[in-house]
Amino acid sequence: MGMMSRFSIRQRLLASFVLSAIFMLALALIGIQGKRMSNEALHTVNQDRLVPTGQIAQMFQLMTANRVLALTALQYDPRNPLTSMQSEPLSALLPEVQRNIAELDGVIREYLSTYLTDEERRIVERVTRERESFVRQGLLPVFDAVQQGQFEQAARVYQDQLEPAYERYRNELNNLRQLQVDVAEEEYQKAQADFEKSLWLVVSLLILALLCSALISLAVVSSIVRAAHSLENASQSMADGDLLVEVDYQDRDEMASIAQAFNRMRLRMHEMISQVASSTAQLAAAAEETTAVTVQTSDGIRRQQSETEQVAAAMNEMSATVQDVARNAASAAEAAHAADADAANGRKVLARTVEVINMLAREVENATRVIRSLQEDSNNIGSVLDVIRAIAEQTNLLALNAAIEAARAGEAGRGFAVVADEVRTLASRTQQSTSEIQAMIEKLQGGAANAVKVMETGHRQAGEGVTQVAEAGAALESILQAVTTINDMNAQIASAAEQQSAVAEEINRNIVTVSEIAEQTSVGSQQTAATSEELAQLAAQLQSLVGQFRV
């Protein structure tokens, strides 16, 4: 059972079925093997014994036919009065003898092609020798003597050679036939032994299969019955009120799952009954406490009625105070409205100021861009003047070189020298004019740079003015929002004061109602005390019922 407990009932039943199937398959295979062996034995007996037996009979028949033909040939002796009665000529006998010999040789070859035992092979070899002796020393010499007309010689050969060889041949064939019978008997005995062996094996396997199936069935039934008895005993104990009993079943099958579920149910019921018992005790204690609390509640209700009257007087005074607060809140709201209007006008003025300063800042920024463009143009003009100065200097240098070449040329170059002097004069004047223009442009650039600085300063100051005005606007906006908040708060205060006045009146009415309820509560407290006593009695009865269970 230790090993079986590791498997479920389903697995055990499946193992029993598989084991039975295996035994049945083994029995079927053994039966098939036995049938195959029987078929092989029958095939062996047929092919190796019955067929060879027929071949032996055929060999004997052919040899006997040749012996008869030899005797027939001796009947052709002219001295024999019966010679005239022969229907066939002597020459027709020899071909028939040769056909028998050829057929005999074919039968012997077929016989040799079958399975032969050692003893059988030795006998066949002797049969073959005797056949040669019969044919070579007996049969053919007889026909040779007959054909020569030597019938007495033929008769002596027949008597001395052919007949003894025939007897030996027949004896060997009889030995061979007897050997076939003996071997067939051995084959039969072997087949019988194989059959008995297969039968005993089948019977043994059948008995083993029945025993294994019976053991597995007994194990499965025993495990189920044992688990069922355990569950029955535990259920009976629970029915008698014992919640401490537990099903002890340690296997791993389906009954173990049922036992575990039963134990969980018992544990759950044990916990529930224990909780009910604990709750019952708490209920009894709570009932006693409720009785004490009910008495204290009655005393508190009487004190509450006295203090409720005092609260009513205080609420009347508070109602008058709330009305004064409402009037003051209305006055503050009017003042806040006036401040709100002034702040709105200030916000409009600041908005116009911001707009004017922004326009000024944009104009300053436009002028700054124009002056910067002028500065860039003057810089470009300075670059052009640099090019012109370089050209003038190059021209002056070329005129000087021309004057030198004209002086070298003498009288022929005098006119060219005059032109060179004029060119040098123009180049000098160009350089002088370029210097004057350069000085003027530098002054213009200096003025433009100063103007740009002034414009940037004005633009920055305009931006700061816009920022300050914006900050003033934000401050004024904060003031406006604060005034609005104050106005809203005054309105809320006035509304709250009115609501408080209404609430005060409502409280007065509620206090009267509370006083009436207090009287009713006093009556209810007395009823609660009576109910608490009944609850204590019910708790005692419930404890008595729970006490019937063993937890």
Explain what the structure shows.
This protein is mostly helical. Helix content is 90%, strand content 0%. The protein has two domains: 4-232, Up-down Bundle (Four Helix Bundle (Hemerythrin (Met), subunit A)), CATH 1.20.120.30; 262-546, Methyl-accepting chemotaxis protein (Helix Hairpins, Orthogonal Bundle), CATH 1.10.287. The protein has six helices and no strands. The radius of gyration is 75 Å and the shape is flat.
What is the SS-derived class?
Answer: mainly alpha
The CATH architecture classification of the largest domain is: Orthogonal Bundle
Number of helices: 6
The average pLDDT score comes to: 76
Shape: flat
How many domains would you count in the coordinates? 2
> What percent of residues adopt helix (DSSP H or I)?
over 70%
Order of helices and strands: HHHHHH
- The CATH homologous superfamily of the largest domain is named Methyl-accepting chemotaxis protein
The residue ranges in which pLDDT falls below 50 over 5 or more consecutive positions are none
Biggest sheet record = none
What fraction of residues sit in β-strands? under 5%
How many DSSP-defined strands?
Answer: 0
CATH class of the largest domain reads Mainly Alpha
Q: Distance between termini?
A: 34 Å
At the third CATH level, what is the topology name of the largest domain? Helix Hairpins
Short description:
Pfam families: 4HB_MCP_1, HAMP, MCPsignal. The chain is built from six helices and no strands.
